[in-house]
Specification:
It contains one helix and 24 strands. The protein has about 400 residues and is mainly β. It is globular, with a radius of gyration of 22 Å.
Length: about 400
């Protein structure tokens, strides 16, 4: 970590530095239709987030520096009140390669419902249950760029633990997650050095990525028996095992069709398994001779561990409709459902957004859980957590 700090100080002290700011500040309120399973939970939550971005480039655009801090204050959940450095990195561009050093975010994957191959950054779970928000990851990333594709090499010298909602938070497990008593398979714990490699290339209508990761799993396991934490509350303790994962992601664009596939093979804690997400999106353009488009999204989620899987998506079908108005306000709505093929559990979602002023954006998100059995180990904790969230963001 000292190396990354030194790089940052050297760049910040450069006489060539210029202030180039952008970012957003957002206000949101979330309302739950039912009381929580715990008396410590609330029905209404409000929060404020702030994410500025400071960018500068020099050397004819061959070198640049990016700084993206993030902070949120939450009305009730002290764990959701948190700060993070999403990005703090220096980029050097060479003739056929690039070197990035610092803290950053890397996204791999093509599917809508889940992102199996995306293993570099840790999930910031207090932000949203969909796993889209990520913590910044310290890294050294060297990319070779050629006609036959791009090869990215990653050295990841420090591990970020997953964030979890607190005792007063919603969309959490019935038991408190004791993040003060985390265990690791590696004796190096958070200082274990992880490695990753990815080749990506575009061949006509096809975008292909092949990756391999060797390091600490971003997905924690948990103790099977709850134990009292430091406050005497029954809690589960996260366990981070070492893992190896090989992944393949493919996207093909064929006229109105968008075909998607993500496949992984993962070895972890003496277990080897395969998982996949496959599907398509078909777009109907200019509906009723208007400017609007409607896309039909269909994906199948599979995990060969079946009922032993650590995810609820081991044999599920995702169906969705995406409406894009194609207006100057960027109005769009995505409605979807993930249905378990073995029982009646369903997860419905709505995501809608629209720019309401030149620098302001309104976002509405809703989740509805139905048919969740009380003995469902993975989803039962959320069976009373139906909610709607309204967010207003100002962008500068």
């Amino acid at each position: 970590m000292k190396f990354f700090l030194t790089i940052t100080l050297l760049i910040c002290s450069s006489s060539l530095w210029a202030n180039e700011w952008s970012g957003n500040i957002s206000f949101d309120t979330k309302y739950f239709s039912q009381d929580g399973l715990s008396a410590s939970q609330f029905k209404e939550y409000g929060s404020i987030s702030f994410q500025p971005e400071w960018f500068h480039e020099w050397d004819g655009g061959k070198q640049s520096f990016t700084f993206v801090p993030f902070t949120r204050w939450d009305q009730h959940d002290e764990k959701r009140t948190h700060s993070d450095i999403r990005e703090l990195s220096w980029l050097k561009v060479f003739k056929e390669s690039e070197l990035r050093v610092g803290t950053g975010k890397v996204y791999w994957g093509v599917s809508e419902s889940q992102h199996l191959v995306d293993v570099i950054n840790q999930t910031d779970l207090v932000e949203n249950m969909d796993g889209e928000d990520k913590l910044g990851q310290p890294m050294i990333n060297y990319a070779l760029i050629n006609d036959w594709g791009t090869v990215d090499f990653f050295v990841l010298p420090y591990f970020r633990e997953r964030t979890f909602p607190g005792v007063n938070g919603r969309l959490r497990t019935s038991y408190h997650i004791d993040t003060d008593n985390v265990t690791y398979e590696s004796s190096d714990k958070q200082n274990h050095i992880d490695y990753a490699l990815r080749w990506s290339h575009s061949l006509g209508d096809w975008d292909i990525g092949l990756s391999h990761f060797n390091g600490t799993s971003r997905d924690p396991a948990f103790t099977t028996t709850p134990t009292p934490d430091n406050n005497g509350v029954l809690s589960l303790r996260p366990i981070y095992y070492l893992m190896q994962q090989t992944g393949l992601d493919i996207q093909a664009t064929k006229d109105a069709w968008l075909w998607k596939l993500e496949v992984i093979n993962r070895s972890i804690n003496n277990d080897n398994y395969n998982a996949a997400t496959a599907g398509f999106e078909y777009t109907f353009y200019s509906i009723l001779e208007s400017s609007s488009d409607i896309g039909l999204v269909v994906e199948y989620l599979y995990d060969d561990r079946n009922s032993k899987a650590s995810t609820p998506f081991e044999d599920d079908l995702m169906l969705g409709l995406r409406w894009t108005k194609n207006d100057e306000n960027d109005t769009s709505v995505l409605v979807g459902v993930i249905a378990d093929r073995d029982d009646s559990s369903r997860l419905y979602s709505i995501e809608a957004s629209r720019r309401v002023a030149e620098n302001m954006k309104l976002t509405i998100e809703a989740r509805l859980f139905t048919g969740i059995a009380a003995n469902d180990l993975l989803l039962a904790s959320f069976r009373q957590d139906d909610f709607i969230q309204v967010e207003l963001g100002y962008y500068f």
